[in-house]
Amino acid sequence: MKYFYLILFLMVCSVKSMAQDFKFAGISHEDIALKNTVLDSNANAIVLREFGTAMMDHNDADGRLAIEYLYHVRIKIFNKQGFESGNIIIPQRINDDLEDEIRDIKAVTINYIDGVFKQTELDPKKIFREKRNKYSAATKFTMPNLMDGSIIEYTYRMRIPRIFNFKSWEFQSGIPKLHSEYIAVIPGLYNYNVSLKGAMKLSSSNAELQKECMRISGTNFDCSRMTYIMKNVPAFIEEDYMTAAVNFKSAINFELSDYHLWNGGKRNVTKTWKDVDYELVSEKSFGSQMKKKDAFKELMPEILKNTTDDLSKAQAVYNYISKNIKSNGFIGIYSETAVKKALETHTGNTGDINLSLIAALNAANLDAEAVILSTREYGLVNSLYPVITDFNYVVAKVNIGEQSYLLDASVPLLPFGLLPLHCINGQGRVINLKKPSYWYDLKASQKDYTRYNLVATLTKDGKIKGELLTYSSGYAALKKRRDILAANSVAEYVEKLDEKMPKISFGKYEIQNVDSLNLPLVEKYEIEINSYNGTSASQIFFSPFFIDNISKNPFNLNERTYPVDLGTSKETRCSIQLSVPEDFVLTGQPKDLNIGLQENGGRYMSNTTFDNHIINFNQLLQLNKPIYPSEEYLSLKEFYSRIIQTQKTEIIFKKAK
Q1: With contact defined as beta carbons under 8 Å apart, do 646 and 606 qualify?
Q2: Is residue 288 classed as helix, strand or coil in its secondary structure?
Q3: Residues 6 or more apart from 474 whose CB is under 8 A from it?
Q4: Among 48, 105, 120, which Cα is nearest to 71's?
Q5: How far apart are CA 173 and CA 184, in angstroms?
Q6: What is the Cα–Cα distance from 349 to 291, expressed in whole angstroms?
Q7: Helix, strand, or coil (residue 644)
Q8: What is the DSSP code string of 9-53?
Q9: How confident is the chain (657 residues) per 10-residue block, as mean pLDDT?
Q10: Which domain of life is it from (predicted)?
Q11: Which of 159, 178, 157, 181 is CA-nearest to residue 252?
Q12: 356, 366, 431, 528 from 416: Cα distances, Å
């Protein structure tokens, strides 16, 4: 990430003319003739031109400052797959009942038919506002009369009733762009920290003076007018195993650093962590909730009745909170309802639940702290200076002896000490009621681990019958427990497994430790595999890779400019022992493979032996790093390609003549 400061020295003596927005629907024959080969031959659509501008506006009636934002874009649709670009969604934030206001929407689809430009305007009645929750809404519409070769164009204005985060601008999106231009007009009263994110560089940027751009209480103020342009911008393609795209897309962001009062004086907005610590500890919906030990005074004897040491006390408290306060679906670092009400209603947001957990741990005389963090979907936090809006989640940290455990009681089925993967995102900030805050690495305490063991026999009629035993722990066990919960019962879970594997029949089964979250999940199945070819059992085809088969490479880009972030290390082991009748001989088998990633980053191994009428097959897949830098992407891609090629092969038996 590249940081620089917007220093509003008003040194330019003359005012340059305002950059002009491009003419609405003013397309040319060159636009019609444009092919996707101009930038990306795989593109289904392309932005021909994009323009935006944002400036502050002061409402003398209510004294509020807001940001007035204009957006205008023209897009060429190449084929039906590009029609998705015609589904427009404009996100709107809601904060303290102040909502981003959308107005002046104008949209048109232009087609070139029989040598004539034909325009189809958007019907205003087909613009819809959708309130997603109490924090966000969206304005949505679909461009009319789309066809191959259409050019769509739309513009709108937005009034944003907040100035701390000046309107950001994304140069990169899911489709390439030929020209993207953004102008930010900022009064000299305000200084913003400006960050340019992503791998792309600006094509051009400049700053100039704009005289008397804003009037407050009868006084005119000059502005700095910043222009940022990026040309020939490639599409940002999202792949598996990444954190929020906002971390890596080429974009420009603004955060208010300080401002001058129009009647004199200066106020800093960028605070020190000491300032933030004091505010959070004093905050009624944060620090005050961490102190609510009295809410658990009468409950604690019952909660701790079977405990013997601090670790068992912490586990008992964690289990009580996770079972008695359920998530209402909202996340945040602050409590919405307060600890006492959350206990009474048995529901709350993540702040209610995990701040209650901290209070309860403290009530049990344990050393508990809060950790505020940003989830993987929300983006990385700014480590250079405190920005409280960078954080959207809170968990508990309990310190027992030399060991610390991170706890999230808001997510069902999490074992003690394991954070959900959406919380594994860089660093969190530990907030203590009495000590200064500090950064803490958010690392997975367990790996994603699965071990399969199949002992089976090939019968004379070509069927493979045996027992499949599976051990899962860490995130693998969490996923399976969630699947069991979603299926409503173990029986339905097994039935769905049976449906997913049509060549395998599941008989008797036993699943252990479904509710014992700190123990591995153990699954035992009697299975039968119909492996003969057609109606003849003379030739048997058996794929030892039928368990956790990798059929598609998750990495398909020629280049990836952002890291592969698994969140945790992973290990999968599989062993198969297959007894074969004496009148069958082995005629084919997968080639043994043993490959590794650089710097002990991972390993894949598979080998097959046939001795004394017994096939022994072993497979190991290890990914030892939670995060692989972009420089290792191509080797990881090749690693998976070789695995997939190996897993396409089978073990083949034939009846001896």
Answers
A1: yes
A2: helix
A3: 418, 444, 446, 447, 448, 449, 568
A4: 105
A5: 20
A6: 18
A7: helix
A8: -----SPPPPPPPPPTT---HHHHH--GGGT-TT-SEEEEEEEEE
A9: 37 38 91 90 96 88 86 97 96 84 96 94 95 85 96 96 86 96 91 88 92 80 92 94 92 86 75 92 96 94 95 97 95 93 95 97 97 94 84 97 97 96 96 96 96 94 92 97 92 89 89 95 94 63 91 93 95 96 90 95 96 95 96 97 96 84
A10: Bacteria
A11: 181
A12: 16, 15, 21, 37
State which amino acid sits at residue 59. N
Model pLDDT for residues 542-579, shown as the tens digit of each residue: 999 998 899 999 999 999 999 999 999 999 999 999 99
Question: In terms of C-beta density within 10 A (0-12 exposed, 13-18 middle, 19 or more buried), how is residue 386 classed?
Answer: buried
Amino acid at 418: L
Give the C-alpha separation, 425 to 142, whole Å. 35
d(CA 370, CA 423): 14
Under 8 Å CB-to-CB from 368, ≥6 apart: which residues?
357, 358, 361, 362, 396, 397, 398, 399
- Give 561's contacts (C-beta < 8 A, 6+ positions apart): 198, 199, 248, 630
Going by CATH, does the domain composed of 448-655 fall within 3.40.50.1220? no
pLDDT value of position 486: 92
Cα 602 to Cα 580: distance, rounded to the nearest angstrom: 33
In contact, 423 and 478? CB cutoff 8 Å: no
d(CA 180, CA 251): 11
* CA separation for the pair 425, 411 (Å, rounded): 17
DSSP 547: S
Q: What share of the chain is helix, strand, coil (3-state, %, to 5)?
A: 20, 45, 40
- The tokens describing 582, both together, are 């004496």
Closest CA to 1 of 170, 165, 196, 167: 196
Cβ neighbors of 412 (< 8 A, separation 6 or more) are 322, 326, 482, 485
pTM over 0.70, yes/no: yes
Q: Which residues have a Cβ under 8 Å from the Cβ of 358 and sit 6 or more positions away?
A: 290, 368, 369, 370, 396
Tell me the C-alpha distance between 170 and 197, whole Å. 9
- Is 30-268 assigned to CATH 3.40.50.80? no
**CATH, range 273-441:** 3.10.620.30
DSSP 243-287: S-GGGTS-EEEEEEEEEE-TTS-EEE-S--HHHHHHHHHH-TTTH
Q: Which two tokens stand for residue 651?
A: 């073990």
Q: Where are the domains of the chain?
A: 30-268, 273-441, 448-655
